[in-house]
């Protein structure tokens, strides 16, 4: 079925994305988001700074790495320090002193991650606070209200999220409820001129449910769409098929944000499938466990094999960590209680992700994206035939072969 | 060999310049001075990037042998020296045997010979005057580059009783060699020791302040303009009032170590305080962030709290040492001392 874009309801929707180049083979696109706090080149990886901080690196360091958009989380910030305080501090930008763009998640994902502490009804999600046992109701209206106070450039609808491993009627219920909640979010949104509300496509791993969700949500007047409910415990084979289905039905002139994806291979494949924006805690979290990301995978720097390795993490990396320090020094520092070790790796891993996206984008603009993909897979897996099956299939589905 | 040129001595306080430092012998260091405190060769919490946003970082960093000893095989194979290994190739380096923050019983210090480095002689002797004098005289006979006064650390009461020993010891030491002291880092104690002929100190105090979620706020502005005096007096009085109240609370919650030179950002009253840690401070934290933000980071256990507090506390502390040198230059150390003592209660 061809992409179903309904012209009448969408003429007035703001176009925040400008397409700069498209791959003639795959669905990959290079573009530019025009957001209140400045332009953002796409495809883009957005680091996650859940509680108004990027885990030990300063705003200045993050800016110097070239980051122009990062994430905050409504559930966490709504509890601590709370929307009233953040509003007094001139919004989340003012509170954390971040001059570029912010995207806030709605709190929906916490429904899955904190499932034992939450209860979902048509009204909203009731959470029991792990800190003081207090109960809070996060409704679509409440989520948008908090995000309005936070003032982030992109805000997410509250969606009814179920784990991708859940099957049965709950998935359908969540999909339809997400559509109803989208409408409630749109109605409650007080600042559409300053903050861009994105819809989140649900439907689990069921192609029909997803198609229905796509058809309904694309009738709504929103500046962008996220593909949600994936990147949980599902198989990669199911994962890519849902992503591909979603991008085939989403309008071309609006950004596609694939939530929770951040592994290098996944990023490259999903760009090929037509996604523009990504977020994931993986690179920053893995840094704090002593793992450095490199084009061939990762280096577990705490391991003895790096004790006398005097090379930088990656000789082609331009980040401050690689400019100044060796694997051996980082190994030694990781075995101490000096937190600087974690910050060195956080800086590098964010640099790695951003440099990867930059390289992807350049290859699309220069009309050599398929070659880039082949080189990338070759470096990562040694031989194109050793590339994971799901990735080979996904790429083949959009015309990129690895041999 | 490094050489100390004294510019002046006022009431036992020495102002001067150590020359012929570094690999090529062309570096200098003003005294009184503090060393940059490091853990495993890195300033705590700070990468090269964040360290270099701090103004007034000392020319010499302190490494602790205790944290580096386990890596000696690696360093031997590296062959290019510890400075380059830790990413501080331009820094002057002082290697102490112990980490002042992880205490070790005094007296367990032995000489170690390091190639191409200047050896510092250690003065021991416990609390016995005779032994102290013997240690000082004998060590002074050796061709050492300077002297480390060991065994004066402990709690504030301990130092007080040992100050008289300190004067006697430094009186036995040659004028033209620097005197370092280990384990003394509090602003009031630093001044007491400078008055008794000590030149170089460790900067672990700002690190300890950071680790308890506090920020240094004491004033070292010994000649403020009248308007600032009024503002600061109002500020200081308010702070002292609160400190007295909270000190009582603190002792019951086992946080007796907090001093009156700092504020505790975890306190609820900072939740909506949008002022910088210290008004007028030029550090990255004060120029970019508020007390409310630091409070939030501490309450949510975020790593950035340590980073920002360390940046502020180091800069504040290095500023204090700068003010000591300036005060000595313009013969105003008494004013500075009075200001610090007023805040030390």
Automatic annotation (TrEMBL), chain A:
Membrane topology type: Peripheral membrane protein
Annotated ranges, domain tRNA-guanine(15) transglycosylase-like: 26-379
Amino-acid positions noted as binding Zn(2+) in the UniProt annotation, renumbered to this chain: 317, 319, 322, 348
UniProt keyword tRNA-binding, yes or no: no
Reaction catalyzed: guanosine(34) in tRNA + queuine = queuosine(34) in tRNA + guanine
Example GO biological process: tRNA wobble guanine modification
Keyword tRNA processing: yes
Enzyme class of the recorded protein, top EC level: transferase
The protein's required cofactors: Zn(2+)
Biological role stated in the UniProt entry: Catalytic subunit of the queuine tRNA-ribosyltransferase (TGT) that catalyzes the base-exchange of a guanine (G) residue with queuine (Q) at position 34 (anticodon wobble position) in tRNAs with GU(N) anticodons (tRNA-Asp, -Asn, -His and -Tyr), resulting in the hypermodified nucleoside queuosine (7-(((4,5-cis-dihydroxy-2-cyclopenten-1-yl)amino)methyl)-7-deazaguanosine). Catalysis occurs through a double-displacement mechanism. The nucleophile active site attacks the C1' of nucleotide 34 to detach the guanine base from the RNA, forming a covalent enzyme-RNA intermediate.
Subunit (UniProt): Heterodimer of a catalytic subunit QTRT1 and an accessory subunit QTRT2.
PANTHER family: QUEUINE TRNA-RIBOSYLTRANSFERASE CATALYTIC SUBUNIT 1 (PTHR43530:SF1)
Name recorded for this polypeptide: Queuine tRNA-ribosyltransferase catalytic subunit 1
Species of the source: Canis lupus dingo (dingo)
Automatic annotation (TrEMBL), chain B:
Cofactor binding note from Swiss-Prot or TrEMBL: Binds 1 zinc ion per subunit.
GO cellular component: mitochondrial outer membrane
Subcellular location: Cytoplasm; Mitochondrion outer membrane
Key words of the record: Cytoplasm, Membrane, Metal-binding, Mitochondrion, Mitochondrion outer membrane, tRNA processing, Zinc
Gene Ontology molecular function: metal ion binding; tRNA-guanosine(34) queuine transglycosylase activity
Domain tRNA-guanine(15) transglycosylase-like residues, every copy: 115-343
Cofactor needs: Zn(2+)
Membrane topology: Peripheral membrane protein
InterPro entries to which the protein is assigned, alphabetical: QTRTD1, Queuine_tRNA-ribosyltrfase, TGT-like_sf, tRNA_ribo_trans-like
Gene Ontology BP term (one): tRNA modification
SUPFAM superfamilies reported for this sequence: tRNA-guanine transglycosylase
Positions of Zn(2+) binding: 281, 283, 286, 312
Pfam families linked to this entry: TGT
Subcellular location, principal: cytoplasm
Self-association state and partner proteins as the record states: Heterodimer of a catalytic subunit QTRT1 and an accessory subunit QTRT2.
Role according to the record: Non-catalytic subunit of the queuine tRNA-ribosyltransferase (TGT) that catalyzes the base-exchange of a guanine (G) residue with queuine (Q) at position 34 (anticodon wobble position) in tRNAs with GU(N) anticodons (tRNA-Asp, -Asn, -His and -Tyr), resulting in the hypermodified nucleoside queuosine (7-(((4,5-cis-dihydroxy-2-cyclopenten-1-yl)amino)methyl)-7-deazaguanosine).
The protein, known as: Queuine tRNA-ribosyltransferase accessory subunit 2
Organism (species): Canis lupus dingo
């Amino acid at each position: 079925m061809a992409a179903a874009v309904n012209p009448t309801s969408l003429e007035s929707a703001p176009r925040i994305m400008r397409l700069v180049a498209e791959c003639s083979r795959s669905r990959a696109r290079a573009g530019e988001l025009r957001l209140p706090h400045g332009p953002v080149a796409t495809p883009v990886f957005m680091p996650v700074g859940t509680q108004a901080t990027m885990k030990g690196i300063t705003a200045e360091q993050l800016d110097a790495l070239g980051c122009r958009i990062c994430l905050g989380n409504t559930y966490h910030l709504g509890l601590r320090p709370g929307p009233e305080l953040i509003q007094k501090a001139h919004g989340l930008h003012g509170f954390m002193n971040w001059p570029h763009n912010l995207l806030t998640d709605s709190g929906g994902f916490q429904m899955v991650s904190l499932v034992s502490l939450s209860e979902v009804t048509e009204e909203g999600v009731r959470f029991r606070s792990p800190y003081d046992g207090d109960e809070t109701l996060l409704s679509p209206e409440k989520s948008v209200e908090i995000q309005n106070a936070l003032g982030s450039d992109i805000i997410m609808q509250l969606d009814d999220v179920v784990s991708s491993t859940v099957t049965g009627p709950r998935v359908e219920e969540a999909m339809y409820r997400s559509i109803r909640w989208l409408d409630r979010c749109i109605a409650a949104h007080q600042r559409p001129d300053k903050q861009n509300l994105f819809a989140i496509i649900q439907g689990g791993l069921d192609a029909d449910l997803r198609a229905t969700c796509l058809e309904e949500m694309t009738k709504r007047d929103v500046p962008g769409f996220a593909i949600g409910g994936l990147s949980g415990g599902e198989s990669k084979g199911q994962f890519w098929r849902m992503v591909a289905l979603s991008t085939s039905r989403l309008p071309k002139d609006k950004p596609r944000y694939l939530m929770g994806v951040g592994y290098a291979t996944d990023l490259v494949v999903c760009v090929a499938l037509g996604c523009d924006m990504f977020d994931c805690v993986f690179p920053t979290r893995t840094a704090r466990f002593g793992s450095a990301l490199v084009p061939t995978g990762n280096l577990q720097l705490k391991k003895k094999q790096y004790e006398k390795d005097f090379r930088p993490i990656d000789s082609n990396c331009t980040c401050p960590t690689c400019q100044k320090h060796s694997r051996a020094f980082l190994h030694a520092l990781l075995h101490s209680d000096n937190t600087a070790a974690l910050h060195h790796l956080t800086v590098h891993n964010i640099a790695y992700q951003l440099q990867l996206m930059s390289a992807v984008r350049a290859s699309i603009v220069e009309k050599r994206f398929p070659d880039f993909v082949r080189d990338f897979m070759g470096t990562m897996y040694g031989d194109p035939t050793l590339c994971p099956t799901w990735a080979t299939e996904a790429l083949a589905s959009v015309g990129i072969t690895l041999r | 060999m490094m050489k100390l040129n004294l510019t002046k001595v006022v009431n036992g306080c020495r102002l001067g310049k150590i020359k012929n430092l570094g690999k090529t012998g062309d570096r200098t260091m003003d005294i009184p001075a503090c060393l940059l405190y490091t853990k495993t060769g890195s300033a705590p919490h700070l990468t090269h990037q964040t360290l270099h946003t701090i103004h007034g970082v000392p020319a010499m960093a302190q490494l602790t042998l205790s944290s580096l000893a386990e890596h000696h095989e690696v360093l031997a194979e590296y062959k290019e020296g510890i400075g380059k290994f830790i990413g501080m190739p331009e820094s002057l380096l002082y290697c102490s045997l112990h980490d002042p923050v992880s205490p070790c019983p005094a007296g367990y210090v032995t000489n170690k010979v390091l190639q191409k480095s200047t050896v510092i002689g250690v003065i021991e002797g416990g609390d016995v005057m005779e032994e102290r004098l013997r240690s000082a005289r004998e060590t002074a006979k050796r061709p050492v580059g300077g002297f480390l006064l060991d065994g004066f650390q402990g709690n504030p009461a301990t130092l007080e009783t040992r100050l008289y020993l300190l004067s006697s010891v430094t009186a036995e030491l040659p004028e033209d060699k620097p005197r370092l002291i280990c384990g003394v880092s509090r602003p009031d104690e630093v001044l007491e020791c400078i008055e008794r002929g000590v030149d170089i100190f460790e900067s672990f105090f700002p690190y300890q302040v950071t680790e308890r979620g506090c920020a240094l706020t004491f004033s070292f502005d010994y000649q403020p303009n009248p308007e600032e005096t009024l503002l600061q007096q109002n500020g200081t009085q308010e702070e002292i009032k609160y400190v007295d109240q909270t000190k009582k609370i603190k002792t019951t919650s086992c946080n007796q170590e907090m001093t009156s030179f700092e504020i505790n950002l975890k306190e609820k009253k900072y939740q909506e305080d949008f002022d910088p840690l210290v008004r007028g401070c030029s550090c990255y934290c004060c120029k970019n962030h508020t007390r409310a933000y630091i409070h939030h980071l501490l309450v949510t256990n975020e790593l950035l709290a340590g980073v920002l507090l360390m940046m502020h506390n180091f800069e504040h502390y290095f500023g204090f040492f700068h003010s000591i040198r300036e005060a000595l230059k313009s013969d105003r150390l008494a004013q500075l001392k009075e200001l610090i003592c007023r805040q030390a209660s």
